[in-house]
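Sharing a chain and its predicted structure for anyone who wants a worked example. Both blocks are below, sequence first, tokens second.
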Amino acid sequence: MHSEQHLRSSDTIRDIVIGMADGLTVPFALAAGLSGAINSSAIVVTAGIAEIVAGSIAMGLGGYLAGRTEADHYSSELSREHMEVEIYPEKEKAEVKEVFAEFGLSERLQYEIAEEMSKDKDKWVDFMMRYELGLEKPLVNRASQSALTIGVSYIIGGIIPLSPYFLISNSTDALYYSCAITLLCLFVFGYFKSKVTGQNPITGALKVVFIGALAAIAAFMVAKLIEGRV
């Protein structure tokens, strides 16, 4: 028996990816930059934790605002569609016919479907929202859930590159372990992210590792350059 396997990407997966991607990369680059300028892991940890707190709040707030904007937009369009099926029913029926015309249905079937659909205005409006406007109804509390998921994912991702600094007092020594741990995590994260999104897992993983490494190297070199000029 043929079994089709399709990924249904969820909003939660997207939020985890957003939070983890920035959580792994930004604190890693910050720690690398500070390690290039100072030898104290305590300072790196203090600055890193401060950045994680600020970053998780900022990222979570961004997710919340995006979720609220999506919900407000859907509500606004829903009200407009309800108004249009009341005031311009024939125009809305014509738009239903246009949708099914794109599927190759005959004019007779288009007419019958439009007439049948117009008997239930709620389902009619729902159809127009999905197939005319391409909008899906947001989940209840979507904005709050998005903010929490992104924020927590950012914190988890951010702790990883900082973890060696909790155990090793010299920041330069801690950086070596941080690089090894973080780049490995970036590879694993990139691998599964690419697998989930249907891309080549190895290529996707290497891209994520390259971006993270590039950010850390850039921060480290800038810190060294500034230190040499001070």
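Comments welcome. Helices lie at 11-35, 41-87, 89-101, 107-117, 121-131, 142-167, 171-196, 201-229.
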